[in-house]
Amino acid sequence: MMAELLTTTALPIMLVGAMVGIASSAVGTFLVLRGNSMLSDAISHSIVFGIVIVWLLTKQQSGPVQLIGAALTGLLTVLLTEALASTKRVKQDTAIGLVFPALFSIGVLLLNIYANDVHIDTHTVLLGEIGFVWLDTLDIFGLPIPQALVSMSVMTVLNYAFIGLFYKELKLATFDPALAKTFGFMPSILFYVLLMLTSSTAVAAFDAVGAVLFIAFAIVPASAAYLLTDRLWMMFIIGALISIASSISGYYLAVYLNVSIGGMMAVMTGVFLMLAFLAGPRYGVITQLVKRQRARQAPVEPPPSV
Amino acid sequence: MVWLELLSDYTFQNVVIGASLLGLISGPLGCFAVLRRQSLLGDAISHAALPGICLSFIITGSRDIGGIIIGSLITGSAAALIMLMLTRLSRLKTDAALGACLSIFFAVGIVLLTYIQSTNNASQGGLEAFLFGQAAATLRSDLWVMGSITLVTLLLLAVFWKQAKLVTFDAEYARTLGMPITVIEASLTAMVALAVVVGLQMVGVILMAAMIVAPAAAARQWSRHLGGMLTIAAGVGIVSGVSGATISTLSRGLATGPLIVLTATAIVLISLALAPGRGLLWGVIKHYRQKSALQKQQLLYALYKHSADPSCAPSTLGSRRMLNKLKQQGYLTRSPRGATPSDGGWGLTAQGQAEARRVIAAFEELAS
């Protein structure tokens, strides 16, 4: 029964989509809370550079070497950005806007030069091929498990292991970096590890959804969750639920309309964000309007008579 | 000979003119974006142009540049508006709203792109070129459209120069003067969308962000005035556009967009290092000059005041290079061994003593 389900194409694709969302929104939650969401944009573009370099050095297109290479590229992006910003000659956002297009350009040019040998082309770089994840499988316990599902699961476990181990520290470093520093939690090192995990997740998600759609999976479910709850642990759960829902609904819509599956899943995360924005129980725009209306129409209590 | 041949090449002419137009519009508008701390808004707007391009293709059924421009303007501005709405009406911060708009609009673009591909329209070929730009495919008629957009945008900027400047540097003051700030801010953003549209053909939606940021960041290092900054940014934009396009044509097969972006980045790095006044290299040189001047003063002071004290021997105070330099300048002499055993043979000349007195006087004046 299990084997049957996995050999059909629908389930592996949806599972991979959901896993991409769960792993990315775990790190994305902290990026959103810290106000560094655009770093996911920078990282997801510049890992193209890392992937090509690692490929040139080791001829490996995926696997642990690529994940480590990605982590280092992510770190390089952030360090370059901070180095530029620390000259005080450009602002932080300008520095981001300078670093990642440059790295991305180098990556694309290298792809151009070695186009004949490398199997990743610029099309895959941007869009990914989630529709074909079931082609590349590993046999685990006799079951054909898609390779992408394995690497995404590994990243999910890694991300949540890190968050679980350092939950208290991360929480304090996110909401009160100054206090975290006084306690000796080294918030900046925690943050660097988080960004390295983000880039490894981006590379693992790369084959499935490509560079740009990864941003949607990292930022959008976490943003929607931020509009729905005030609790950190709830943000992870809501982010994961939105990822799963987007993956399933995105898949069926994409098959129905015959369009890009990864793209449709990302669009669905946007739909959920809009829903949270408009109809969230506490901060939703419509909810606020209704509340205000009710407050206005509520009968004014007559002053207690003597 | 190669150059002459190149210059008369029709495609190359188109590419160079297109790249210059792109630099001319993205440089000045990028200045406003960078100064208003909206560097990454250009990134979001350019990614959001993709669904507009696809929509116009679905509606008109062709790659007509007019339709593509209108389409990408509409979706680009819509993305900017939704981003503003998300930050104003919810507790999402700017960065999250930007990232969400960028990725969702791009995703919609991808979905539309694959929808067009699935309908198997024969003339759809080349839509994907807008991802990375396809400078070589630029037509003369495209250039006229790009040129008019650039002209109109720059004219608008010239007409509303004072307002744009005030809103950029002191929005509160502009408000008290009764200027329609929201309208001016919105039009500055819409103009960024126009610049993005001009760049679509040349560098593509993904790298357009760099063309907004890089020329402006480079120009900021060279000028302290808005007018100068805009002019220099336009120049940097044109230079990087033209040289990127040239390298791409000469190398056959290297994408134009990345080359333009890398040229612009190189100019930024050079500006950061060398720009007069702000350049990092000047800072380093100034630091070493000051350090060596201080060492010289210390040495002269010590030799003059404490020549008998062995702990102030010149050989412990200054490096050999420093001592030799001072000797060359005529402040020190190296007497034959044994004048005073502690100073290693170094002593002040008459000129050195005068200089030391001057240093001490200046020091005491500072101390009092």
Automatic annotation (TrEMBL), chain A:
Q: Which InterPro entries match?
A: ABC_BtuC-like, ABC_TroCD
Keywords assigned: Cell membrane, Membrane, Transmembrane, Transmembrane helix, Transport
Q: Please indicate if the UniProt record lists Transmembrane as a keyword.
A: yes
Q: Subcellular localization, per the record?
A: Cell membrane
Please report the record's description of how this protein sits within the membrane.
Multi-pass membrane protein
Q: Name one GO cellular component term.
A: ATP-binding cassette (ABC) transporter complex
The record's section on Pfam families has: ABC-3
* A biological process from GO: transmembrane transport
Q: Please list every transmembrane segment annotated in the UniProt record, as residue ranges.
A: 12-32, 39-58, 64-84, 96-115, 148-167, 179-197, 203-220, 232-253, 259-279
**Family indicated by similarity:** Belongs to the ABC-3 integral membrane protein family.
Which protein is depicted?
A: ABC-3 protein
Species source reads: Vreelandella titanicae BH1
Lineage of the source organism? Bacteria, Pseudomonadati, Pseudomonadota, Gammaproteobacteria, Oceanospirillales
UniProtKB/TrEMBL annotation, chain B:
What name is this protein filed under? ABC-3 protein
Q: InterPro entries under this entry?
A: ABC_BtuC-like, ABC_TroCD
Transmembrane region(s)? 12-35, 40-59, 65-84, 96-116, 143-161, 173-196, 202-219, 226-247, 259-281
- Record-linked Gene3D superfamilies: ABC transporter involved in vitamin B12 uptake, BtuC (1.10.3470.10)
Bilayer topology term: Multi-pass membrane protein
Q: Which CDD domains match?
A: TM_ABC_iron-siderophores_like
State whether keyword Membrane applies.
yes
Please give the family membership noted in the entry.
Answer: Belongs to the ABC-3 integral membrane protein family.
Q: Name one GO cellular component term.
A: ATP-binding cassette (ABC) transporter complex
Q: Name one Pfam family in it.
A: ABC-3
